[in-house]
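Thread: "does anyone have the structure for this chain?"

Original post by V.I.:
We have the sequence but no experimental structure in hand. Need at least a predicted one for the grant figures.
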Amino acid sequence: MTDTSPRGADGVRLDLKLVANMVRPGARVLDIGCGDGELLALLRDTRQVDGRGIELSREGVSASMARGLSVVQGDADTDLADYPTDSFDYVILSQTIQAMRQPKAVLENLLRIGRRAIVSLPNFAHWRVRFYLGFVGRMPVTEHLPYSWYDTPNIHFCTIRDFVALCREVGAVMEQAEALHANGKPMGLRLPWWCWNLLGEQGVFLLRRIDR
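Reply from O.Q.:
Generated one for you, tokens below.
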């Protein structure tokens, strides 16, 4: 599937730039579900991080290693329990939580392993998705939900409000949160969650444990 995510003039995905800007330069970073390593490479080149990655697919691991990145093949649903507490400054889960079998357990592990966690996700409550379901009566295919229902890796569709509620349930503090337009740019205004839920195609969250 061709990646149609909005990109800047330099060819970098705009949502990944936003995530990178949340990371302190020189930090220790674990990127879970790192794909071909685009975000890790961006963090290495622009934030000089000490980065590691976990990726399920062999193709993704090979592509990441070809970029000179330290990436291992693994399954976040089962392998995160092996990582020590506070072993990274940031743990990132970009556009992947909806593909996890146990998203709540994965989020709890992110907050345990990292001093901060960054999570981005597609918003299944965006108005285009609602329109498609309501008037066409079929599962939508969009830029951020680009698969047909029968071949999608996404098994837990959620909304921005769903994720906010999950953060409260697991005791996560939101230090920063952004909703992104279809063009990949932040909505900017501090609008209520229902408005983010309706107008935001993606959500990006910087989190920490409530006991920090």
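V.I.: this helps a lot. The domain at 14-209 is CATH 3.40.50.150 (Rossmann fold).
O.Q.: and DSSP finds eight helices and seven strands in the chain.
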